[in-house]
Every structure is written in structure tokens, then in C-alpha cells.
């Protein structure tokens, strides 16, 4: 988190060289409000995003900003171990053996995002990040400032920062494949008038994102005449299309493909 903060603390001219809002995101990207012009309101954070997988999108080591290179690569290995263990447990939890989610490709895409939520003079007029659900499996680390909330029983609940603790988000694809056995978590980050910036380091593990012939859906092993599929099949480009056309929006995709 210190290394990510050090990146964001650099002068604008240094960071702006990496700035883009392009959709075909590869390598290293510095961005703010990737969905500006498509959502109703701008939100209050900047992000450094680094692709680590698949190989085609992976940032070359020398492209990763030096202020956080070593730390980011170390975090990649650590967070991937956590994700692998969790995917095994999630598979076993469905009675499908430990390898199922990994075999389906949940470790194929890997993106680390270092968010920076600066001091906000009027936090009641915006949010840090809009309510949304993630796509695959997310491993998240946050500093002490706070502001992350999850929706529980229709109420927003604070995810209190605990030093050294990781927050894990289940995303929409896991909800769909598990046919609602697992439920993706709606979350948001409030803007804060704290002088200290909020930092979070988020690793997104996901299915391949490019193929429009790979169809995913509720896993057949989980379906019975009493429990038919709750979702139609989908491709990842279809999921991402919604994400890029509408911006972050609550459970948008889940609702769209629900039968
Ligand atoms: O900064 C956070 O804690 C949450 C970030 C987030 O939800 C995301 O990047 O998808
Ligand atoms: Fe998220």
C-alpha cells in the first residue's frame, strides 16, 4: 500500500504519461473514472492498473512504474496463492472437487489495481466508487481510512479496515456458475473528507475475456429438475460490454441474463 501511495504521490506530469481511458486495456494503465461520460456522475478516485495475465496483456516488467514494481510483483504472487486456495474451497463447497473453478479458467485473467481516493472537500456530493459487483474473484487490501461498504439485507455495512486483513469479493460469474449458491457482493466506497488518502490494492482474478464462442453458465453438475438453471448462457465479451457501455452499476449483468 505504501508503494501504491508512492506512485500516486508523484507529480501529475509523471503519471499522465500512463493515462488512458481506452477499453482495450493492456500493460499498465493510469486512469480516473474509466466510465466518465457514460455514468451520471464522476467519482472520486484515481487508479493504477497493471495486467499480469494472460501473457498477451501482461505488462513488461520495465513498464511497471519503478516506485511500486518490486512490491507489485511480490503482491501478485502472494495474492494469487490466496486466490488459488479460495477457488479450491469454493469448488469443494459445491461438491465439485478442488480443481473445478481453476479448470474453468478463473486464474486466466489477473489485473492488479491500486486505487487512490484523495481528500474530498464535499464527500456528500459524490462517492469514491459507485455501487457495483465485481466479475470473478477479488482479493482486496485496504488502508486504515475506511469507506468500503457492502450491501447486506438491503443496508450498507462498513467493511472496517483491519490491519493485515484481506477482503474477498465473490463476483457475478461465480454467482451465475454456482446457480446462486454463491452470491456476488454489492459494494461501494464512500468519499471521505479525511486528509489521509484512502489506498486499496485490488487483485481481480477472472475468466479469459476475449472469446465470443466460449459460453459460460450455471454448471450442469449443479442442475436438477427441481433446480434448473437460473441464468442463460453468456460470453465474457458480453459481460464486459455491459460494463463498458453502462459503467459501474449494481448487479446489472446478473439481472440482464436471469431467466
Ligand atoms: O477500493 C476498494 O476498496 C474497492 C474497489 C473496487 O470495488 C473495485 O475496484 O472493483
Ligand atoms: Fe469492486
UniProtKB/TrEMBL annotation:
Residue ranges constituting the Fe2OG dioxygenase domain according to the UniProt record: 107-207
InterPro entries registered for this protein in UniProt: IPNS-like_FE2OG_OXY, IPNS-like_sf, Oxoglu/Fe-dep_dioxygenase_dom
Pfam families the UniProt entry points to: 2OG-FeII_Oxy (PF03171)
Keywords in alphabetical order: Iron, Metal-binding, Oxidoreductase
GO MF term set: dioxygenase activity; metal ion binding
PANTHER family: 1-AMINOCYCLOPROPANE-1-CARBOXYLATE OXIDASE HOMOLOG 4-LIKE, OXIDOREDUCTASE, 2OG-FE II OXYGENASE FAMILY PROTEIN
Family: Belongs to the iron/ascorbate-dependent oxidoreductase family.
Name of this chain's protein: Fe2OG dioxygenase domain-containing protein
Protein source organism: Castanea mollissima
Amino acid at each position: 500500500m505504501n508503494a501504491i501511495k508512492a506512485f500516486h504521490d508523484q507529480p501529475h506530469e509523471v503519471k499522465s504519461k500512463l493515462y488512458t481511458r481506452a477499453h482495450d486495456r493492456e500493460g499498465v494503465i493510469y486512469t480516473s473514472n474509466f466510465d466518465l461520460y457514460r455514468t451520471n456522475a464522476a467519482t472520486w478516485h484515481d487508479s493504477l492498473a497493471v495486467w499480469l495475465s494472460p501473457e498477451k496483456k501482461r505488462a513488461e516488467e520495465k513498464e511497471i512504474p519503478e516506485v511500486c514494481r518490486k512490491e507489485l510483483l511480490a503482491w501478485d504472487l502472494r495474492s494469487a496463492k490466496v486466490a488459488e486456495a479460495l477457488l479450491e474451497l469454493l469448488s469443494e463447497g459445491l461438491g465439485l472437487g478442488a480443481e473445478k473453478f481453476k479448470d474453468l479458467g478463473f486464474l486466466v485473467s489477473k489485473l492488479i489495481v491500486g486505487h487512490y481516493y484523495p481528500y474530498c472537500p464535499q464527500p456528500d456530493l459524490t462517492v469514491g466508487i459507485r455501487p457495483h459487483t465485481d466479475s470473478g474473484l477479488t482479493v482486496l487490501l485496504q488502508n486504515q481510512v475506511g469507506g468500503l461498504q457492502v450491501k447486506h439485507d438491503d443496508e450498507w455495512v462498513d467493511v472496517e479496515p483491519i490491519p493485515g486483513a484481506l477482503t474477498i469479493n465473490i463476483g457475478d460469474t461465480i454467482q451465475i456458475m454456482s446457480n446462486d449458491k454463491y452470491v456476488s457482493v454489492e459494494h461501494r466506497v464512500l468519499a471521505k473528507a479525511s486528509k489521509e488518502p484512502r489506498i486499496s490494492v485490488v487483485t481481480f482474478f477472472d475468466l479469459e475475456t476475449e472469446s465470443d464462442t466460449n459460453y459460460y453458465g450455471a454448471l450442469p453438475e449443479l442442475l436438477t429438475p427441481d433446480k434448473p438453471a437460473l441464468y442463460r448462457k453468456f460470453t465474457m465479451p458480453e459481460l464486459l460490454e455491459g460494463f463498458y457501455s453502462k459503467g459501474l452499476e449494481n448487479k446489472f449483468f446478473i439481472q440482464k441474463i436471469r431467466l
